[in-house]
Specification:
single chain, 174 residues, mainly alpha, 4 helices
Amino acid sequence: MVNKKIYIVIILLFLINFTPRLQQGGEIDTRKNELSSLRSEILRLESDLLEKTKSERESFNVIDNFNKQNFLLNRIIGTLRTEEREKDRLIRQYEKRIKDTESTIENLKENYANYVVTIYKQGTGYELNFLLNAESFNQAFLRYQYLRRFSEQRKKDIDKLNSTIAELETIKKS
């Protein structure tokens, strides 16, 4: 719109310059006044054009800032989604470890319970009778070794049970 006005003013200036010289003095003054008003209109239009150009630049800068903010927000969202997937993976991993650890604890408890029931049913003298009923010294020694290893294994089972329970608590806290 501003460009059209400038073109109209320029065309009028050319028309004024190419028209035959007016012979009357009054008409020359009128034309000078018209020319002066056209010049002031041109200056006003140029000023408007500069102002609108400045406004367009500001609008472009605002849009550019919005685009940068949008890019940064999308980047943050992407980072948060990646973190969320990683946390979900860790949670699933911990849940599996908890389930496996609870299963191990149950097996250890069951084995130890079976051992205690067997000892109760056999009585306290079972181990001593087991050794004394051996047919030879060599067999008694082997039975002693067996009972010692069995006892050590039960102690290891108890220690493993306690450490597994502690590990389960640590995993749950994580």
